[in-house]
Known about the structure:
The chain contains 15 helices and twelve strands. The protein has helices spanning about 1-10, 30-35, 50-60, 75-85, 100, 105-110, 130-135, 160-175, 185-190, 195-200, 225-240, 245-260, 265-280, 305-315, 335-355; strands at about 15-20, 65-70, 90-95, 115-120, 145-150, 175-180, 205-210, 220-225, 285, 295-300, 315-320, 325-330. The radius of gyration is 22 Å and the shape is globular.
Amino acid sequence: MYADMKDKAGPKTAPLADFRSDTVTQPTAGMRAAMAEAAVGDDVYEEDPTVRLLEETLAGLAGKKAALFFPTGTQSNLAALLVHCGRGDEYIAGGDYHVFHDEAGGAAALGGISPFPLATDETGGLTPAQVAAAIKPDDPHCPVSRLLCLENTVSGRVQSLERIDSLAHVARDKGLSVHLDGARVFNAAVALGQPLSRLCAPADSVSICLSKGLGTPVGTVLCGDRDFIRRAMRARKILGGGMRQVGVLAACGLYALERNIARLAEDHARARRLAAGLAAIPGVDVEPAAVETNMVFADPGAGHHGPLQGYLADHGILIGAQVPKIRLVTHMDVDDEAVDMLVGKIQDYFANIARASPAPLSHRS
């Protein structure tokens, strides 16, 4: 029956290059072999040895006492908020941070936790003064401020050690806990030349994604102290995240931690190469100086987002549909040739296709 379904679906042509996200990577042959050879057990019973090893390894790298494997970063962040906050409590976060902006309001919908978003600067950062002003007084009219949620990187921008330290200090001084959404924190660590533990030190808990720059097919690990992780295990169960013989996925994480951290520097270099190439194309607005890790944001001008996306897709290149600035992400399945191909096709679009378009190339949103 499965063969019949495949035949009906018809053949699919893989794209030549996919710049939509670093989540689109395919497991390598070595990673697939690690999956096949993984020792497994029932993780709900805490009997999967490969999961235990992954959790211990990443907790050690993050400088925390314990860790817990989750299927997704969204679930990991939500579990962290459910542990840190009770119903009616408040968390403070950047208004464009993933935990507030891109997780379907889960903390409010499922935890009754009130968000308090703050405006971020052009680098995705907050200031200590903002955080201090956002923390509510002991007043029955206000929710209880319990948690500060930080993020590193933010849209590819690295948050400095000093900034994270100062923000965490303000929160702790007022009795708040600190959670770090470290979906791409390894990118930040490589960019800063610092160990992961240093970036995670100011936070009580940190969520670290394995399926972005590190190239695994799925998985996030939440790190914290032992009591926090014990309580997070209950939150994970409530959220439906208890899994069984999941060592086949944890093996991917171990494989990636051994082999794919240092190579993130290659993604960063290719993002800079891409930004430099795009900056030379009339009609494309991009800031090469803003490229700090593996993301480039480019504005092709009003009226060109959809047509450019379609033109590139016709040539086997996939990009995002964001407006006004399209996010282009480099990753382990993108090489120098793919970067140069993307730049070349965008040059072709503006030299030939866009010439006939009535869209004003000089417009910038």
